[in-house]
UniProtKB/TrEMBL annotation:
The gene is Myo1b. Belongs to the TRAFAC class myosin-kinesin ATPase superfamily. Myosin family. One of its GO terms (molecular function) is ATP binding. PANTHER family: MYOSIN (PTHR13140), UNCONVENTIONAL MYOSIN-IB (PTHR13140:SF277). This is MYO1B protein. GO terms for cellular component: brush border; cytoplasm; microvillus; myosin complex; plasma membrane.
Length: 348
């Protein structure tokens, strides 16, 4: 119920992860259909980039305002930090406080003067500003680092490399918020180079008990996780897409015209293959560089046919090998019989 600086930066990380989810599953997928020339009606969704900007913007973001308060001379308190937020973020539609212009809760006593509220993608969260400045200034003083570095124990010395006199940096150490922001940026950069798969966990009840399903709780989670928009995109879109070359290479054994080698363009080979298999036209679409399959059962059918074809090919290979093996053995025995008979007739 009482959210402070720790919960604020955790929720900031959640916002960034949600942004990656939106980029990869909603934005990029729809853009890919347009890029590939597939007929597509755009599906609207909420993009939480505006919330991320509220928190991390280098000039007007909450973290930037917090760092500015920590670094400026004079009397700095949590209340002066909140006053600065009220000045800078007053008109932001996702920021609310008792003094902000966007607040719809001026007469709501559940929003104290020492708090601010952010409308995250998952819902509204109220933060107590008490302790924000001190926690953001979570600094280890330079003389303490130097004292720990001079310890005789090798492990303790290794834990405080910044205490090495040869590496003394006279700059002010970065704040906790800026360090966390840099770590989140590194994480996002790493995730964007990968092909992530998402597993969304739904909590069926608040009692952590079996066989209890709270409909309202589950529906709330489905809404704020953005699953409804994702399902709409998936149902209207295509379950599977693959470049023509690997698709033809994987399934070419299912058609006599493409097996064992197809001499023309890969797209033409895929068209011949799908026509030969009599797959309904509404189940797939040809993009500029990829084949799009709408229903998973079409893909399962292709995989089943491929599995059966592999078994048939394995049986054919085994049959040919056994025929070659026994024929070779027979010819060897026949040759040996002729040699033996000729030598026998010579001495008979």
């Amino acid at each position: 119920q009482d959210n402070s600086f720790e919960q604020f930066i955790i929720n900031y990380c959640n916002e960034k992860l949600q942004q990656i989810f939106i980029e990869l599953t909603l934005k990029e997928e729809q853009e890919e259909y347009i890029r590939e020339g597939i007929e597509w009606t755009h599906i609207e969704y909420f993009n939480n980039a505006i919330i991320c900007d509220l928190i991390e913007n280098n000039q007007t973001g909450i973290l930037a305002m917090l760092d500015e308060e920590c670094l400026r001379p004079g009397t700095v308190t949590d209340d002066t930090f909140l006053e600065k937020l009220n000045q800078v973020c007053a008109t932001h539609q996702h920021f609310e406080s008792r003094m902000s212009k966007c607040s719809r809760f001026l007469n709501d006593t559940s929003l104290p003067h020492s708090c601010f509220r952010i409308q995250h993608y998952a819902g509204k969260v109220m933060y107590q500003v008490e302790g924000f400045v001190d926690k953001n200034n979570d600094l280890l003083y330079r003389d303490l680092s130097q004292a720990m570095w001079k310890a005789s124990h090798s492990l303790i010395k290794a834990l405080f490399p910044e205490g090495n006199p040869a590496k003394i940096n006279l700059k002010r150490p970065p704040t906790a918020g800026s360090q966390f922001k840099a770590s989140v940026a590194t994480l996002m950069k790493n995730l964007q180079t990968k092909n992530p798969n998402y597993i969304r966990c739904i909590k069926p009840n608040d009692k952590k008990a079996a066989h209890i399903f709270n409909d309202a709780l589950v529906c709330h989670q489905i809404r704020y996780l953005g699953l409804l928009e994702n399902v709409r995109v998936r149902r209207a879109g295509y379950a599977f897409r693959q470049a023509y070359e690997p698709c033809l290479e994987r399934y070419k054994m299912l058609c006599k015209q493409t097996w064992p080698h197809w001499r023309g363009p890969a797209r033409a080979g895929v068209e011949v293959l799908f026509n030969e298999l009599e797959i309904p036209e509404e189940e797939f679409s040809f993009g500029r560089s990829k084949i799009f399959i709408r229903n998973p059962r079409t893909l399962f059918k292709l995989e089943d046919l491929r599995k059966q074809r592999l078994e048939d090919l394995a049986t054919l290979i085994a049959k040919i090998y056994r025929g070659w093996k026994y024929r070779t053995r027979f010819l060897l025995m026949k040759k040996s019989q002729i040699v033996i008979a000729s030598w026998y007739r010579r001495y008979a």
